[in-house]
Amino acid sequence: MPDTMLVQRADSAVQGLTPMTIDSLADRALKALRPRTFQPDPIRSQWVAMVLPGGGQIYNKKYWKLPIIYGGFLGCAYALSWNNQMLRDYSQAYLDIMDSDPNTKSYEKMLPLGYDITPRIDQFKEIFKNKKNYYRKYRDMSILAFAAVYVIGIIDAYVDAELSSFDISPDLSLRMSPRAIDTSPTADAPSLRRANNLGLALTLDF
Predict the structure, then answer these.
(1) Residue 139 is inside which H or E element, if any?
(2) pLDDT (tens digit per residue) in 118-171
(3) CA 50 from centroid of its chain's CA atoms
(4) Please, are residues 78 and 144 in contact by the beta-carbon 8 Å criterion?
(5) 67: part of which helix (H) or strand (E)?
(6) CB neighbours of 85 closer than 8 A, spacing ≥ 6?
(7) How far apart are CA 108 and CA 69, in angstroms?
(8) pTM of the full predicted structure?
(9) Rounded to whole angstroms, how far apart are CA atoms 38 and 139?
(10) Roughly what angle, to the nearest 10 degrees, separates helices 66-98 and 121-163?
(11) How far apart are CA 107 and CA 36, in angstroms?
(12) How far apart are CA 42 and CA 56, in angstroms?
């Protein structure tokens, strides 16, 4: 007897639901049964990227971004090393050409073999000075680019983790299907007759 009463209550509860409500409950039940995908935590991803460059991308499981991150670091490291070496060479050459010591002639290594700069000494002093400033500028820009790649890696890890909660699955769709519409009398329209009319339903899955 108690089981019969429960079945009757369940039937009455289902009969009280509209077809649209039943479909909505069914969709929610199906979504609840789907396997949960990994959703990274944005704050944790940010901290991992700060401690280990590229670590945020590893945590987010976006391994394809690692060559971009580490390629950027390698490119900046090469530019920094090259410009820093050229800065040292031209700085020493400028110091040597500016002093009066005949034994300090490192600038001759940057000239063709046997080239005499005595008639154009003032012009070469200006050239070495400009070269020194040129490579100092690009040495500093290489340092800034290195820091920019580090910061971009952190921002990318955070944003990627933040956007991972958005549903971009193939289930995003708009479907049209026929639907039986219940026109039972209501408080606002008591004159309606109880009937099931055929209509068109638009369903947006997301």
Answers:
(1) helix 121-163
(2) 778 888 889 889 999 999 999 999 999 999 999 999 999 999 998 887 655 555
(3) 14
(4) no
(5) helix 66-98
(6) none
(7) 40
(8) 0.61
(9) 42
(10) 160
(11) 67
(12) 9
